[in-house]
Amino acid sequence: MSRESAIARAAQYFDGGTFKTDLARRVAIPTESQNPERAADLARYVEVEMKAAFEALGMTCRVLRHPKARGPFLFGERFEGEGLPTVLGYGHGDVIRGFDANWKPGLKPWEIVETDGRYYGRGTADNKGQHTVNLAALGAVLKTRGRLGFNLKWLIEMGEEVGSPGLREVCAEHKDLFAADVLIASDGPRLSIERATIKGGSRGAYPVDLWIDAREGGHHSGNWGGLLSSPSVQLVNAISTIVSPTGQIRIPEWLPGAIPDSVKRALATCDVESGPGDPIIDPNWGEPGLSAAEKVFAWCSFDILAMTAGNPESPVNAVPPRAWARGQLRFVVGVNPDGILPALRRHLDRHGFPMVQIAQGRDEIFQATRLDPDHPWAQWAKASIARTTNAPPAMLPNSGGSLPNDIFSEGLGLPTIWVPHSYPGCSQHAPNEHLPLSVAREGLQVMAGLYWDLGEAGVPK
Questions:
Q1: I need a labelling partner for 50 at 20 to 30 A (CA). Which of 77, 199, 290, 293 fits?
Q2: CA-CA distance, 333 to 153, in Å (whole number)?
Q3: What is the CATH number that goes with domain 204-256+300-360?
Q4: Residue-range domain boundaries for the chain
Q5: pLDDT digits (tens, 9 = 90+) for 179-215
């Protein structure tokens, strides 16, 4: 009975093919939360697949529901004793739409295909592969030690890809049920494929709709061009006042101020680089004077995700009556989300665009959260992972992407540790999503070591 034995058992779970078998079974359930026709599949993933996995770890299970949610929630608990640390785990079983016709020949979203050192399939990286790693690592510790050495709680949701509707309410209504000392979970990518990573929170994501309704119907661009205002031209000019030609945000209220010293120190050891198959980083894009890591993990960015005016598929010679754009602000701690829309309204009015209407793009938004890299739980996790991999992990105060982390960090008052088992080039949310075998195998070892250490002395109080 040793830490090394638990890590070896986790690796054998992968080498013997059981990881692939378990993940293939889960990927085969088409849990598209954006598709109303998949409601039965969302329920099946919770009530059949995950319930069996939780019970295999000796957890008692409870299905929770909320009217806002796309599917049920699964709560599991294993209690081993008073005075032991209590750890809350989390994962989401829903996935982005499969986009079946857009995958490379030979690949399918609902079937695991192993090729080029990768498992292809929808959910392999986000998030079925990641919670499969963590549940298997828990099993390796339990079989090796005979107990975990800590109390375990776990939550699976089925709506993260649509903003986690109902999750906030469920956690608030059952706050005592989710009481714990720390959240340890996995989602999103590592800093790079080679380097294990810890993230303490996530950037927020605020969707913004901007549009101009100029008039009823389009009008001939020859007969009326030069006489009628063009909503598409006006909207493009309005957007150009929000962000510079090199991606620099021009609304002061959308920026966080000074980057904390502890965050600067942590990010100084984190190089953000393009790997094989990744897009080439534009070095002159974004806030000048910041490193690449600071731009994505300690600063804010604004993008236009989609725009429409007229008939893009079949343009006609007419001044369009309407133009619309969906923007998105990725923001960090230090930006007040309640002030995002009011600041935008003031900015547009000041620059002569009162005709541009604005609204929050969807009901649910992800808030910005951050665990200080010097926090005892962050340093404890860093030491555990370094012991397993013989190299210091990247320590990120938050991810560049967004998660419902504030529900845990603010709502439940927990320090949050995210250990991702993916990488930036995984095609998450796109066709050809995949999980490298090397990342999955090392993730199993990392988590087995981490869960083993939770049952030993030296765990933060």
A1: 199
A2: 28
A3: 3.30.70.360
A4: 3-202+369-454, 204-256+300-360
A5: 999 999 999 999 999 999 999 999 999 999 999 999 9
